[in-house]
C-alpha cells in the first residue's frame, strides 16, 4: 500500500472514531483522548529519520499528552489501541510488526511511570515539577526506544536535534492540553498547533533522507557503468566497497573516513571511462592511470576526499585498504580461493601492500567465512 | 537601476521610516510603555528568526515574523501597548547581511515595514478581543483576520518598493507576492500560543517552543546543502565523462537546463522539477559504455554499429532505475517512451520523457555533431513544430519555444558556446547525437531538404 494511502486510511478510521465518540458522549473528555490516540497512531507512521540515527516515530510526542492528560489506565489502553490500529498498516512480517508495537507500548509505559515518579516528589513547585516530569518521561520513552538496538550492539546513540524537537514538542502539547493551575488550558488546540513545528522537522528530515539516499544510489549506479562497459568484472565495485568498509572499520577509521572510502571504492574504475580506447593508443592502459584519472575527476566535485584516496601517490590507510582489497577481489575473480588470494597478497613485495591492512583484511575475510 | 528610480526608492524607504518613527514617538508619548522583559525577549526572537530562516526561504522567514508579531500582540494586549508591538516588529528588519554591507536603505525599509504592519495588525486584533479576559478560542479566531491584515500590509508595502526599484507593473508584482501567504495563518495561530505561554509561564517555555523550529531549520538547511552538492557532483561527473566525446561536451547540462525551462513553463511542481533536472542530466549516461570510435564516427553508422550504439539506452535506463528517486522517469532515457503518439491516451503517463526528448532533440540540432554542423535556431524550431504531435509532444514543444523566446535565448549556428574546429559535414538532422542509420534507398529526404533550404 502506498504511504499516502496508509496515512489516509488511518485518518479516515480516526475521524470515524472521533465522530463516534463525540456522538456517544457529547461534551465529554473522551473525545479529546480519542483524538490524541489518533495522533499516536499517525505518529507511528510518521518517523523522524535524522542521518546516522535510529529513526524515531512522532508518536512519542503524542504519548506525552496522554501521559499527562489521561488517567494511567486510560493512557496505557489508548496507546495499546493506537498500536493495534496501526498494526495492519505497518510493513513487514506480522511477528515483526507485533514486536514493534509491543516495544512502543513499553516505551509509553516507561514514560508514564517516569512521569508519575517525578510528580510524586513534593520538593518542587508546580511548574518546574511538571516540566521535569514531562522531560524525564520523554527521555524514558527514548531510552526504551534505544534499548533494543543498544542490547544488540552496545553503541551510544547519536542523540541530536530530532530527539530534542520530539520531547520539546510533546512537553508543550502536554502542558497546553491541560494547563497548569491556575493557568487555563487550551485543550486540543495546543496538540494541533504544536505539531506544526514537529511536522516541519519531519518534512525536512524526510527531504534530507531522500536526497541522501539519492546521492548514495547515484554513486552506486555510476559504479556499475565500468562493469557494463566490460572494463571491470561484474559486481567488482560493490564487493570492493563492502569489504573495504569492513577492513576500514577493523582498522578503526571514523565514520566520515569510511564514507569517503566507500565512495572511492565504488568509483575506483570510473576514470577508465575517460581514457581513450586501447586500440587508439600506443601503450596499454595501466591501473595507475585509471586511478589517477578517477582522482582527477572526483577532486573537482564534493567527493574530493574520495578522489584523494584514489590517487596513486596517496599513502593513507584508506588508499592502502582500497588497493589491497581491489587486488584481493581481482585475484578472487581469477578463480583463486580465499586462502590462495591471501597468500598472493602476503607474498607480494612489502612496499606494495601495507602489512597492517593485509592483516585486517585477513581477519575480516576469515570472520566472513566462519559466519 | 536608473537614477530616477533609485531616488524614488530612497524617498519611499526614508518616508516609510519617518512614518514609523513618528508613529512610535506618538505611541510612546500618549500610550502606555511596554514591559521591558517581554519586549526584549520577543525582539531578540524576531531578530533571530529573520536572520536564521530568511536565508533559506524568504516565505518561512516572514512566517516567523507573523508568529512573533502575533505573540507580541497577545502579550501586550492587557495594557494595549502598541509601542511594544511596533518595536518587536521593527526588530525583524535587523537583518545581519544588510547591516554588514551597510545597506541602510534596506534596513530602514524592512524595520519600518515590519513595524507599521505589526501595529496595524495589533489594531485589528485588539479591536476584536479588547483588553479584558478572553477565551483562548476567541484569541485564536481573532488571529485569522490579524494574519490577513498582516499579509495585506506586507504585500502592499513590499510590492511598492519592488515597483519603484524595478519599474515593473504593480499588479504583476502583487500577484507574484501574494501566492505564499497561506502559510501565514497557522503561524499566526502559533503566535497566539507563544503569547499565551509567555503570559502564563514567562520565559520558561519559550526554549521548548523554539527547539523544534530550530531543528526543522537545521535539517532543512542540511537538505538544501546536500541537494546542491549532489546536483553539482552529478553535473561535474557527467560533464567529465562526456568530455571523451568532444561533440557532446556540455550536452547533458544544456538538456537539463532546457528541461528545466520546459518544466517551469508547464508548471511542474518543485520536487518533480528536481527529478526532471537530474534525469535530464543523466539521460545519456549509458553512452559511456559505447566505444569512442563509434561515438565520434563522422557520417552515418552501419546497421550493426547502430545496434551497438542503440544499446546505450538500455544501459541508461538500467542506471536510472537503480536510483529510486529517478526510477519513475527512467524511460526518459529511451527514444521509444518519449515518442509522442497522438492516438494513445497519455493521461496518467509521466510527461518527463517527452520533455527530455524535446530538450535533447533541440540541443542536438543546435549544436555541432560529428555528422553535421549546428543548425540555426529557426530551423530547429521549425523542425520541432513539424514533428509536434507526431514525434514530439505538442505541449512540450510549445513550452520550450515559448520559454526560450521569453528568455531571449538564441542557440544554434553562430551562437554555440563550444566551437569545434572540425570539418563536420553539414546536412542531416541526426538523432540526438547518435548519428543516422545509413540510409537504404535515400530515406529522410524531407529532413535534408529542410536543412538545405
Question: Which key features would you list for this structure?
Answer:
heterodimer; A: 371 residues; mainly alpha; two-stranded antiparallel sheet; B: 453 residues; 19 helices; 0% strand; elongated; disordered C terminus
Description of the structure:
The complex is a heterodimer of chains A (371) and B (453). Chain A contains 15 helices and two strands. Chain A has helices spanning 3-24, 30-45, 59-69, 72-86, 94-119, 126-152, 161-178, 188-228, 236-250, 255-266, 287-298, 304-310, 317-333, 338-347, 355-370, and strands at residues 47-48, 56-57. By secondary structure, chain B is mainly alpha-helical. In chain B, helix 1 packs antiparallel against helix 7 (136-166). The interface between A and B is large, with 63 and 59 residues.
Oligomeric state of this protein: heterodimer
Report the major sheet of chain A.
Answer: 2 strands, antiparallel
Helix percentage of chain B: 55-70%
Compute the number of strand runs of chain B.
0
Strand content of chain B: under 5%
Condensed summary:
With 371 residues, chain A is mainly α.
Helix-strand blueprint:
The complex is a heterodimer of chains A (371) and B (453).
Chain A: H1 3-24, H2 30-45, E1 47-48, E2 56-57, H3 59-69, H4 72-86, H5 94-119, H6 126-152, H7 161-178, H8 188-228, H9 236-250, H10 255-266, H11 287-298, H12 304-310, H13 317-333, H14 338-347, H15 355-370
Antiparallel strand pairs in A: 1-2
Chain B: H1 3-30, H2 36-53, H3 58-75, H4 82-91, H5 96-100, H6 104-129, H7 136-166, H8 170-177, H9 184-201, H10 206-242, H11 251-265, H12 270-281, H13 292-295, H14 303-321, H15 335-338, H16 352-365, H17 377-386, H18 394-407, H19 445-452
Helix pairs in contact in B: 1-4, 1-6, 1-7, 2-3, 2-4, 3-4, 3-6, 3-9, 4-6, 6-7, 7-8, 7-9, 11-12, 11-16, 11-18, 16-17
Amino acid at each position: 500500500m502506498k504511504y499516502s494511502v496508509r496515512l489516509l486510511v488511518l485518518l479516515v478510521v480516526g475521524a470515524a472514531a472521533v465522530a463516534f465518540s463525540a456522538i456517544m458522549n457529547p461534551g465529554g473528555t473522551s473525545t479529546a483522548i480519542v483524538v490524541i490516540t489518533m495522533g499516536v497512531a499517525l505518529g507511528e507512521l510518521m518517523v523522524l529519520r535524522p542521518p546516522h540515527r535510529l529513526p524515531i516515530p512522532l508518536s512519542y510526542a503524542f504519548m506525552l499528552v496522554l501521559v499527562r492528560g489521561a488517567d494511567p489506565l486510560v493512557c496505557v489502553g489508548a496507546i495499546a489501541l493506537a498500536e493495534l490500529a496501526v498494526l495492519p498498516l505497518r510493513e513487514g512480517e506480522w511477528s515483526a510488526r507485533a514486536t514493534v508495537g509491543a516495544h512502543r507500548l513499553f516505551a509509553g509505559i516507561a514514560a508514564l511511570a517516569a512521569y508519575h515518579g517525578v510528580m510524586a516528589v513534593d520538593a518542587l513547585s508546580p511548574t518546574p515539577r511538571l516540566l521535569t516530569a514531562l522531560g524525564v518521561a520523554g527521555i524514558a520513552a527514548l531510552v526504551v526506544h534505544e534499548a533494543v538496538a543498544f542490547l544488540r550492539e552496545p553503541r551510544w546513540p547519536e542523540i541530536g536535534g530530532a530527539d530534542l524537537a520530539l520531547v520539546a514538542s510533546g512537553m508543550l502539547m502536554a502542558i497546553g492540553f491541560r494547563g497548569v493551575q491556575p493557568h487555563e488550558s487550551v485543550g486540543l488546540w495546543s496538540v494541533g498547533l504544536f505539531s506544526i513545528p514537529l511536522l516541519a522537522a519531519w518534512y525536512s528530515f524526510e527531504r534530507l533522507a531522500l536526497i541522501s539516499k539519492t546521492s548514495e544510489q547515484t554513486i552506486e549506479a555510476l559504479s556499475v557503468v565500468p562493469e557494463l562497459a566490460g572494463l571491470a568484472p561484474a559486481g567488482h565495485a560493490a564487493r570492493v566497497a563492502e569489504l573495504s568498509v569492513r577492513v576500514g572499520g577493523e582498522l578503526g577509521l571514523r565514520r566520515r573516513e569510511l564514507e569517503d572510502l566507500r565512495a572511492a571504492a565504488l568509483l575506483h574504475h570510473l576514470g577508465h571511462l575517460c581514457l581513450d580506447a586501447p586500440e587508439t593508443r600506443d601503450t596499454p592502459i595501466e591501473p595507475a592511470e585509471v586511478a589517477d584519472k578517477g582522482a582527477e575527476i572526483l577532486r573537482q566535485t564534493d567527493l574530493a576526499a574520495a578522489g584523494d584516496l584514489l590517487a596513486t601517490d596517496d599513502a593513507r590507510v584508506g588508499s592502502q585498504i582500497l588497493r589491497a582489497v581491489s587486488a584481493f577481489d581481482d585475484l578472487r575473480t581469477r578463480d583463486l580461493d580465499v586462502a590462495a588470494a591471501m597468500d598472493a597478497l602476503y607474498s607480494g613485495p612489502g612496499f606494495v601492500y601495507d602489512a597492517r591492512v593485509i592483516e585486517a583484511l585477513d581477519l575480516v575475510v576469515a570472520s566472513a567465512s566462519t559466519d | 537601476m536608473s537614477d530616477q528610480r533609485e531616488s524614488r526608492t530612497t524617498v519611499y524607504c526614508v518616508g516609510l521610516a519617518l512614518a514609523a518613527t513618528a508613529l512610535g514617538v506618538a505611541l510612546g508619548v500618549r500610550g502606555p510603555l511596554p514591559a521591558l522583559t517581554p519586549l526584549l525577549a520577543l525582539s531578540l526572537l524576531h531578530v533571530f528568526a529573520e536572520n536564521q530562516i530568511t536565508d533559506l526561504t524568504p516565505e518561512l522567514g516572514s512566517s516567523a515574523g507573523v508568529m512573533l508579531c502575533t505573540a507580541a500582540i497577545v502579550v501586550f494586549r492587557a495594557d494595549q501597548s502598541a509601542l511594544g508591538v511596533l518595536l518587536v516588529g521593527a526588530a525583524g528588519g535587523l537583518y545581519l547581511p544588510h547591516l554588514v554591507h551597510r545597506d541602510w536603505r534596506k534596513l530602514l525599509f524592512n524595520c519600518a515595514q515590519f513595524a507599521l504592519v505589526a501595529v496595524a495588525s495589533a489594531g485589528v486584533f485588539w479591536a476584536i478581543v479588547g483588553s479584558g479576559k478572553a477565551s483562548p478560542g476567541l484569541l485564536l479566531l481573532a488571529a485569522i483576520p490579524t494574519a490577513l491584515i498582516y499579509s495585506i500590509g506586507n504585500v502592499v508595502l513590499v510590492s511598492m518598493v519592488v515597483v519603484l526599484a524595478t519599474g515593473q507593473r504593480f499588479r504583476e508584482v502583487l500577484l507574484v507576492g501574494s501566492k505564499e501567504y497561506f502559510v501565514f495563518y497557522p503561524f499566526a495561530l502559533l503566535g497566539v500560543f507563544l503569547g499565551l505561554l509567555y503570559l502564563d509561564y514567562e520565559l520558561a517555555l519559550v526554549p521548548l517552543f523554539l527547539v523544534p523550529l530550530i531543528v526543522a531549520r537545521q535539517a532543512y538547511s542540511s537538505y538544501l546543502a546536500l541537494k546542491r552538492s549532489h546536483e553539482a557532483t552529478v553535473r561535474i561527473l557527467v560533464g567529465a565523462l562526456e568530455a571523451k566525446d568532444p561533440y557532446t561536451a556540455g550536452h547533458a547540462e544544456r538538456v537539463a537546463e532546457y528541461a528545466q525551462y520546459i518544466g517551469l513553463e508547464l508548471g511542474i511542481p518543485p520536487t518533480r522539477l528536481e527529478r526532471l533536472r537530474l534525469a535530464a542530466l543523466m539521460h545519456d549516461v549509458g553512452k559511456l559504455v559505447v566505444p569512442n570510435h563509434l561515438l565520434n564516427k563522422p557520417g552515418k553508422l552501419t546497421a550493426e554499429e547502430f545496434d551497438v550504439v542503440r544499446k546505450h539506452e538500455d544501459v541508461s535506463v538500467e542506471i536510472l532505475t537503480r536510483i529510486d528517486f529517478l526510477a519513475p522517469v527512467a524511460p526518459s532515457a529511451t527514444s521509444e517512451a518519449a515518442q509522442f503518439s497522438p492516438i494513445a491516451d497519455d493521461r496518467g503517463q509521466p510527461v518527463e520523457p517527452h520533455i527530455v526528448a524535446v530538450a535533447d532533440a533541440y540541443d542536438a540540432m543546435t549544436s555541432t555533431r560529428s555528422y553535421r554542423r549546428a543548425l540555426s535556431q529557426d530551423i530547429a524550431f521549425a523542425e520541432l513544430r513539424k514533428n509536434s504531435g507526431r514525434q514530439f509532444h505538442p505541449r512540450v514543444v510549445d513550452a520550450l519555444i515559448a520559454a526560450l523566446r521569453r528568455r531571449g535565448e538564441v542557440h544554434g549556428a553562430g551562437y554555440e558556446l563550444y566551437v569545434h574546429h572540425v570539418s563536420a559535414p553539414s546536412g542531416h538532422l541526426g538523432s540526438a547525437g547518435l548519428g543516422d542509420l545509413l540510409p537504404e534507398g535515400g530515406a529522410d529526404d524531407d529532413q535534408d531538404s529542410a536543412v538545405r533550404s
